[in-house]
Amino acid sequence: MLLNYEDVSTVKKTVEVEIPADLIAAETKRVVASFSRQAKVPGFRPGKVPGGVVRSRFAKEIQEEVREHLLPQTFYEALAGKELEIVGEPHLQHIDPFIEGAPVKYKAEFEVKPRFELGEYRGLAIDDPKIEVAEEDVDKMIDRLREQASAYRPETERGLDEGDFAMIEMTTSGDDVEADTRGGHFRVGEETPMPELHDALRGKKAGETASFEKTYGEDAQNERFRGKNIRHDVTLKEIRVQEKPEVTDEFAQSTGGWESVALMREAIAADIRKHRELEARRLKQNQIGELLLAAHEMEVPESLVEEEVGKSLQNYARFLVSQGIDIDKAQIDWPKMRDGFVPEAEKRVKRSLILEQIARKESITVSDVEVDAEIRRAAKEADRDFAEVKHRLKNDGGYEHLRESLTRDRALDLVLREATLRSA
Which of 27, 66, 216, 362 could disulfide-link to 220, CB 3.0 to 4.6 Å? Predict the structure, then answer.
């Protein structure tokens, strides 16, 4: 029974509810019967434990189960008819002790999606990026393919020159710096934090040595070198020369299965165009999002923002792991990282709320068949079993979340189709 309802803000509410004594008694009776069937008590056969014994022995557990069932039931019943979109979990601020034969009152705070007046979303003026693919773009991509297919031959007749790869062994030493010898390689002429190394070895032949000294600043990447003069003794172990393959039909066939250079160039140009079209679409979607945000003022529920921040932190953690970083050992200021994600999280929540309202106004819906099709596509891409993925999503609420996401995407597509495009 609803006792009191209060609007704390546009997204935060409080409610006071009374659970009638007869409802508590009926639920308690049901829970006791369930315990009686399952409880194992010395001296009684399974399923034959008297209710009085169960009540006495499992009083705390029974009361907890009664609470867990009646609180959400009475909470949502009390708010029925108020047309609220509740988000997150209600926060229990107060609850009376359970006393047999007496009603129980409780107070809870909760959040809802804000109600706001939907502004104009048709005919929004946005820039339309010009998409061009020049011959130079194709040439650059082909040159990358040549780089990947290159051979590297040892050079023994001449000295080290621009563009050569130098295989080296270098010993570093200095005051209060223990001598350390390491191997490595670099390409002569490429940008580097140690140009002195290039200068010292340029013109040298394999097997020859060189030395140089370098004074490091306090911002040096290697902490041991900061503020010190370090000596570097280098041996040029080997010179390797890159040999790129010629652009022929044979190269096209071996690289991508294209029958000719012409077909290779055509396919590469189409691929570049496709990527640029996708990027242009993302840019237009971002413009739409910013315009919708500027046209709608609203308060957003903290629970939805926290959910978005959590996703950002998880994605960042997964990225670090993919880079081979142990996040348990990495010195990351997670609270600071979290605070940095908040502004964009708030924007994403606002955009989602606006697109949801547009979808409602436009009667945009997504059927089960369409949700299944998206799950099937994603499962295939991840080499997962469709039925397994769908079952997991059904159980953890992800199925409806996916439907909502697809609905928002369609609303965004509608706004984009109706936009006025300006030549960028």
Answer: 216
